[in-house]
Amino acid sequence: MKKLADILQNCAVIETIGSPDISISALVFDSRKAHENCLFFAVKGTANDGHIYINQTIDNGAVAIVCEEFPETISLACTYVKVDDSALCLAKAAAAFFDFPSNDVKLVGVTGTNGKTTIATLLYRLFSSAGFQCGLLSTIENKIGDKTIASTHTTPDPIALNTLLHQMVLAGCTYIFMEVSSHSIDQKRIFGLHFCGGIFTNLTHDHLDYHKTFAAYRDTKKTFFDELPASAFAIVNADDKNGRVMIQNTKARISTYSLSGDGDYKGKVIENQFDGLVLSINGNEVFTQLIGRFNAYNLLAIYGAAQLLGLPDVEILTQISLLKSAEGRFEFVRSTDGIVGIVDYAHTPDALENVLKTIQDIRSHNEQLITVVGAGGNRDTTKRPEMARIAAEMSDRLILTSDNPRTEDPATILQDMQKGVPAHRYSKTLTIADRREAIRTAVALAKAGDIILLAGKGHEKYQEINGVKYPFDDKKELFELLKSH
Question: Which fold has domain 101-320?
């Protein structure tokens, strides 16, 4: 139990009706979870406005309400607190309720369009292998030391986030690495956290269904760096023009990484094969089991962050040589007759192009490259034809299929994708709505030495159709078919 005044100590309170000295047992922003002695935050979301549920939460036991507008009816059994921004207040209050857990660890946030999961996950693995107790907050999973907790969002809501951070502190974690999504920044989920460092990967076409314009998407990402304290570091990709934009107003210490220009952490790809990369980092050669130029960028960010966090170069390079790819990120297998099957999460035009470029760099071109890809339903529709165009131009055979259609008609999604296929690639393109059948067809078309890329879902173990998540694992489907090929 904590006093309401202590919980709201960092919130800009406009007016209070009732006593600020009442005791609070829990924080709630979902009215359905309201219970005795809780504090309810009436947040205006994209789909619902929590203000319409205020009286319902009081009936269920809420003793305090944080809102942007007082309700018409005031209950004498409740304290009402008016603020400008309930979402921002929720984030700051959640940090206070759990005794500011991010102040007790070194918390590093990773943001950008692509590479967030890989960088956060591999930093977690690197520091864990170096002997530190670490935490991870990622799209794939959350980790408290060796304990795995299922992940439902790239960045959890403020209450769940601070709960996890608090548990990590209690478990003795000293370093925590987390993905920071644009949604979480825009919805104020990360405000109230103390970051010791931030990493920017790149910025490409994504989430325009939510942000509407690329400029709004970029500026949302930039907010993360604007809020970093002077004690933190900001390390950005100098080869992405948006890297400089991210750090224009930051108070943090700035570092850069680059493969093609000047940077504090400069890399060069020496060898790139399916077995791994040989990479030069600031003049030191290291072999890594990761594959592709896009992973060279990820490794530079990892190297730079590890150095800024105080690890010695020899330790960093040794650990980098032992790292393996995050689940669903360019995972591959060879069948007994030499077919290479690759599963990757690439679900944006840029990510798909990076994966296909990597394959093109490695392949002999005496084989055919068969790509299976779809696009998610109820999401940014403008990237659908672009993804199909890239896949058609860079593959020998293309199979368009379902991803997570959600509540959208798969036929509509596939029609959007088909618009991007160039006319001269029509004869090399198939459309098979059933994802399992599309994978089977790709394997049936493949001959010894061919390459199959299965893009879009990566680590996901389900396919979401009309609100139901059905078990489906790209890697399992593809790898088992190749075993029996």
Answer: UDP-N-acetylmuramoyl-L-alanine:D-glutamate ligase (3.40.1190)
